[in-house]
Amino acid sequence: MSLDAEAEIASLNRRLAIRKKRSRYGTSRLDKYRNEILALRKKGATLAALQMWLRDRRIKVEQSTISRWLKKNAQIQ
What we know:
With 77 residues, the protein is an all-alpha fold. The chain is 61% helix and 0% strand.
């Protein structure tokens, strides 16, 4: 059995290219409430207040998660 190294490398490179294109992370649970979160933050809501507001909607997240989400999704901070 002979190995066609060039064909094998080409196949591996194609698979790696597809793998790189995939997003490592899915969408955030906070994305569903984007407008509400940004409006509350703009009006002065603290991270703790946002956390409580989300918990009322059965979304359990840490304040650090909200902070990172805000940094990625808004210029408000």
